[in-house]
């Protein structure tokens, strides 16, 4: 009942409040991004969402235009030269995530839930196991159980396990706990930089770092 109705009501109410409170800061951020570098204000990217359906996630652009097609592709680590001056600030403060409030209004996302993966990374939707697909039985979140348990330092198989655990144990009190932990991690800027491998395949032992 909580996941199907009450959680959605809370998401809508809080996102409307959040957009109202953050509207001026978002406008200032958008203007600053536009002045700082060429390109669109928003970065849009396909992610896998609820029930495995793809949707377009919104972020404030923190990298130079066309960054996905240069250098290390979509993967970004510390001291990435493609990150703009403004981008470094909005990443460190997680301001780049604010446009996802509109994803919540649209019904693509929730405040709390499994962080939506790319359509091709760590692997395409058809390559998820039946157990792993369980993570898509909840709307993806701006933050989630995997994010407060390591975020970018957690290898993808473990990250998916954490996401599935959340889906099985979803509750109002768990969401409140995740929200508070996230708040303090953002304040301290913890686990916000790719520091190592987040994907190790059994066949090739290929190691990659997650996208921004």
Assign a percent range to the helix content. Answer: 25-40%
Tell me about the biggest sheet?
2 strands, antiparallel
Note the overall shape. Answer: globular
- N-to-C terminal Cα separation, in Å? 33 Å
Structure class: alpha+beta
Tally of DSSP helical segments? 5
The rounded Rg comes to: 17 Å
How are helices and strands ordered from N to C? HEEHHEEHHEE
What's the arrangement of strands in the largest beta sheet? 1-2
Mean pLDDT: 87
Spans of at least 5 consecutive residues whose pLDDT stays below 50 are: 202-212
The strand count comes to 6
- Percent of sequence in beta strands: 5-15%
Report on the structure:
- The structure is a single chain.
- The protein contains five helices and six strands; from the N terminus they run αββααββααββ.
- Residues 202-212 have low confidence and may be disordered.
- The longest helix has 35 residues, at 2-36.
- It has a two-stranded antiparallel sheet with strand order 1-2. The protein has a two-stranded parallel sheet with strand order 3-4.
- The two termini are 33 Å apart.
- It has one domain (2-191).
- The chain is α+β, with helices and mostly antiparallel strands and 212 residues long.
């Amino acid at each position: 009942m909580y996941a199907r109705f009450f959680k959605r009501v809370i998401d809508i109410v809080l996102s409307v409040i959040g957009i109202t409170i953050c509207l001026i800061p978002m406008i200032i951020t958008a203007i600053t991004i536009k002045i700082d570098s060429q390109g669109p204000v928003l970065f849009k990217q396909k992610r896998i969402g609820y029930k495995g359906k793809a949707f377009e996630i919104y972020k404030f652009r923190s990298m130079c235009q066309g960054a996905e097609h240069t250098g290390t592709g979509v993967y970004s680590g510390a001291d990435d030269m493609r990150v703009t001056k403004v981008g470094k600030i909005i990443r460190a403060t997680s301001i780049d995530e604010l446009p996802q409030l509109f994803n919540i209004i649209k019904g693509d996302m929730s405040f709390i839930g499994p962080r939506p993966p790319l359509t091709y990374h760590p692997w395409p939707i058809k390559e998820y196991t039946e157990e792993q697909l369980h993570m898509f039985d909840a709307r993806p979140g701006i933050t989630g159980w995997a994010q407060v348990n390591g975020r970018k330092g957690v290898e993808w198989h473990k990250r998916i396990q954490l996401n599935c655990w959340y889906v099985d144990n979803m509750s109002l009190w768990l969401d409140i706990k995740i929200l508070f932990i996230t708040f303090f991690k953002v304040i301290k800027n913890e686990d916000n930089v790719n520091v190592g491998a987040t994907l190790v395949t059994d066949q090739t032992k290929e190691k990659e770092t997650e996208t921004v």
